[in-house]
Design goal:
2 helices; mainly alpha; elongated
Length: 68
């Protein structure tokens, strides 16, 4: 597995984990009312949005590099 392929895999997994954490934290905020969970959820979703942007930027930058 090349460094490019591993990097893309790591970005995708990190994005999904961040989205999952954000959804869980916001759901927990609706049950408990703790503002810390809301801040965690919003921060996690913003971080996931940044990872999507970074992943697209990375793919455009290394468009002509092989995956091997």
């Amino acid at each position: 597995m090349s460094l490019k392929a591993f990097h893309i895999f790591f970005i995708v997994v990190s994005t999904w984990l961040g989205i999952g954490l954000g959804v869980w934290a916001i759901h927990d905020f609706t049950r408990s009312g703790s503002w810390m969970y809301l801040a965690l959820g919003i921060g996690s979703l913003l971080g996931s949005a940044f990872l999507v942007w970074y992943g697209l930027w990375f793919l455009r930058k290394l468009k002509y590099q092989s995956y091997l």
